[in-house]
Specification:
alpha/beta; two-stranded parallel sheet; 15 helices
Length: 421
């Protein structure tokens, strides 16, 4: 098979894996090497031949011994199969890099033969890149569950970031759709990567030339919409993963029908839950940067995110007793809870109000989105001019901001709900 044919097959087969993002690592180029990486330098690619601004995103092989029902590369699926040799993939990567097509490599693979053999092939690919070609660019490698821990360790010493896809939100779903995979086999390399990163950081404090293990951290991905788990279950699992494994990111992938299995949603008429995926990313942002807890965002009475509003606005409408927040006195945590105030604008507010009291005009200059925030804030005890008290008007206005079609009638004079009024 021609190299270009292999690239078309294996780059296309990798497009469903979203667990790659900006590099998260700074490494300057050195004499005698080729390539460097910057912390915000790379993003993922979905092009058919793997070429995009940043990463060559490709599988080493799509020949797989597993038969996961949701996967396009499953054993029982009749698709063209191909495999790179380590040398072929290295030459391809370097050729693309020299032409300025890419800044790095995202390398994953189906499980050909067994996890150890597949991991050995990935290690050999990265070894050639790092040692023979002296490639210093960004490399993201997918660890293979079930591989020998020593092989995972070697892979982590060659890669910048590693990931292990958790695949599905529960053990029950995993056993139903991917009986060859076990939760314990997936969590074991995640634990090893977490511990390896921790040990590597300690060694680097003592000796700055110590080998670096996955210095850009690890990430994971789960499929959304293939099974019946609620958003609450997904966010609770996400929160646990961040706490236990210190992940850089959890990625969510809306299920795309690639199988007619009776265990999966029927492909005819099925729409991938892209809006649900978007809401989960917004809720994930609240967990990571806004100090929310999963149990605050969703509970047993409300197990799923409202598709009409972003999760922060939804939380605010359910906790109107928390508002209005006095912008000149509120602490950082309270400011983060206000729709329309982000992390940067909250910090700017804390700095600016040291000089003098803030007004709504001043908040606008600081980057606060007053279209949302004005209904949840007071400045020196005053609400924004023209606002009145009406809870229904607030909901209608927020819906109009998010999706105008959802708010059929928006009153001219919108209003703010004030507790006790």
């Amino acid at each position: 098979m021609e190299l270009l044919d292999k690239l078309n097959i294996l780059a296309d087969a990798a497009k469903y894996d979203a667990a790659c993002t900006s590099s998260g690592l700074d490494r300057a180029g050195r004499p005698g090497t080729i390539g460097s990486t910057m912390q915000c330098g790379c993003c993922h690619s979905f092009s058919a031949d793997g070429r995009c601004i940043s990463l060559l995103k490709v599988l080493l092989t799509n020949v797989c011994v597993y038969d996961c029902q949701y996967c396009v590369n499953r054993r029982s699926n009749d698709v063209p199969r191909a495999a790179f040799t380590p040398r072929e993939l290295c030459e391809l990567t370097m050729g693309f890099y020299r032409r300025n097509y890419i800044e790095g490599l995202f390398l994953s693979s189906a499980v050909a033969g067994n996890p150890d053999h597949t991991t050995e092939q990935m290690i050999e690919t990265l070894r050639i890149l790092r040692e023979e070609y002296r490639f210093g660019g960004y490399i993201h490698a997918k660890a293979i569950p079930g591989a020998d821990p020593l092989l995972t360790q070697r892979l982590g010493l060659l890669a910048d970031r590693m990931s292990v896809n958790i695949e599905l939100p529960s053990s029950k779903s995993l056993s139903l759709l991917a009986p060859d995979k076990k939760k314990e086999a997936i969590l074991a390399p995640m634990t090893q990567i977490r511990d390896g990163i921790s040990v590597s950081r300690q060694e680097l404090r003592l000796y700055r030339h110590a080998p670096r293990f996955a210095p850009a951290g690890q990430s994971t991905q789960m499929i959304v919409g293939a099974t019946q788990e609620s958003d609450r279950q997904i966010l609770t699992l996400t929160q646990s993963l961040y706490q236990k494994f210190q992940l850089k990111r959890v990625f969510y992938s809306a299920y795309i029908p690639v199988s007619s299995s009776p265990l999966l949603p029927a492909p005819h008429g099925f729409q991938p839950p892209l809006l649900r995926e978007h809401r989960l990313y917004q809720a994930d942002w609240l967990l990571r940067y806004y100090h929310f807890r999963a149990e605050e965002i969703l509970d047993e009475s409300q197990p799923n995110l409202d598709p009409r509003l972003d999760p922060k606005c939804t939380w605010a409408l359910r906790h109107l007793d928390f508002f209005p927040v006095e912008v000149n006195r509120a602490d950082y945590e309270a400011l983060l809870r206000v729709p329309g105030i982000g992390v940067k604008s909250a910090r700017r507010i804390l700095t600016a109000r040291r000089v003098g009291p803030l007004t709504f005009e001043g908040l606008k200059r600081l980057g606060v989105v007053l279209k949302r925030a004005q209904y949840f804030l007071t400045c020196s005890g005053r609400v924004m001019a023209g606002l009145r008290v009406n809870e229904d008007g607030l909901l209608r206005h927020l819906l109009a901001l998010e999706a105008p079609a959802l708010a059929t009638a928006v009153p001219e004079q919108l209003s703010l709900f004030v507790p006790g009024s």
